[in-house]
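Q: What residues go here?
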């Protein structure tokens, strides 16, 4: 699966009844209606959205970072904002297509954007501003959020029920998250043009 591909977990297996944790890494997107599934990720400056169709009881999580900043006044989020828009549209479209297809049934919760790296002090704040602006621009309200601060977070999301658990991590864990985010940001993952994706 490509780093930007969305996986859908709906089928039952022979291990029916067992709880399953699905890790959503940076660049990842997972969608499931399985009551046994818990999606989990660790965030520093990155953002994760948890989107759920409240009628169809299906939901998903993404995980993205705006790694670049542009000097252009008209592009205040940087070139990688295209990647953030892709990550958000990919998740929303996946939940809509697997659920009822009605935007009004979506419940959206967002997390992350911490200031945990003094060398990249504005990255978390830009990520927070981006996700708020993106959702507002698309006509969505944020049902719940835990954004900003100076700590990393562990997020656990039950897509079938919509419950989210947030644990704020200590500084040692935050340092590990910083190293991982910097390593991935240097790879400069590029998303397809956003024009290729439509919200419906």
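A:
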């Amino acid at each position: 699966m490509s780093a930007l591909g969305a996986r859908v977990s709906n089928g039952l297996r022979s291990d029916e009844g067992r709880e399953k944790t699905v890790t959503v890494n940076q660049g990842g997107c997972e969608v499931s209606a399985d009551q046994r599934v818990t999606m989990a990720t660790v965030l520093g400056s990155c953002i994760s959205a948890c989107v759920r169709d409240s009628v169809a009881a299906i939901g998903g999580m993404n995980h993205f970072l705006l790694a670049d900043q542009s000097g252009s006044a008209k592009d205040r989020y940087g070139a990688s904002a295209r990647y953030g828009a892709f990550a958000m549209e990919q998740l929303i479209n996946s939940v809509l297509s697997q659920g009822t297809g009605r935007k009004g049934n979506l419940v959206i919760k967002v997390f992350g954007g911490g200031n945990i790296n003094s060398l990249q002090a504005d990255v978390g704040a830009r990520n927070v501003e981006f996700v708020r602006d993106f959702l507002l621009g698309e006509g969505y309200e944020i049902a719940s959020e835990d954004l900003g601060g100076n700590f990393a977070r562990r997020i656990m999301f039950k897509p079938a029920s919509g419950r989210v658990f947030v644990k704020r991590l200590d500084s040692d864990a935050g340092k590990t998250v910083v190293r991982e985010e910097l390593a991935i940001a240097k790879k400069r993952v590029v998303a397809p043009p956003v024009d290729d994706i439509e919200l419906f």
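A: Context that may help when evaluating the design: The beta strands are 6-9, 20-23, 29-32, 37-43, 47-53, 58-62, 106-112, 142-147, 153-158, 163-168. The longest helix spans residues 81-98.
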